[in-house]
Design goal:
By secondary structure, this protein is α+β, with helices and mostly antiparallel strands. The chain has seven helices and five strands, in the order H-H-E-E-H-E-E-H-H-H-E-H.
Amino acid sequence: MKAFLKFAGLIAAVLALVAFILMLACDALSCRIGNVDYLVPGTRALFGSSGNFVDYAPAATALIAFILVIVAILILVLSFVMLLLKVKAFEKVGKILNFVAIGALVVAGILLFFTKAAFSGANNNAFDDYSLTFGYVFAAILLLLGGIVAFLPTAFALTSKKK
């Protein structure tokens, strides 16, 4: 268990990286106009675009989640490298940064679930029906799981008795 706790930050960073890739590579939403279904790519939900048939405004929640995921990945990788290098000055700052990364992952995971409503509002309800696709739902679950994994070392440190 102790070996797992040592690599918990790196595992959380890998989960966040997979979610990051899913956010970019997978379709974010399935929309309907009349009898025609449109799949909104993740990049268009994040950044918006003017395409051939439909113009998309970005979903603010997805963009904020995207930025939070980048911040969390950077913090978790930095923390892991500093742990390997055994930098003493980083010990106190590392705990605070770990909480920032945990918060960023959890908030990003929750915000992804609100992408549907944010996209609908940003596009003035131009579509009849919206639904999140599997890629975005799975990315949100991975981000929440990454936050839990990153919290495990802190939880065990708080509950363990000092000898």
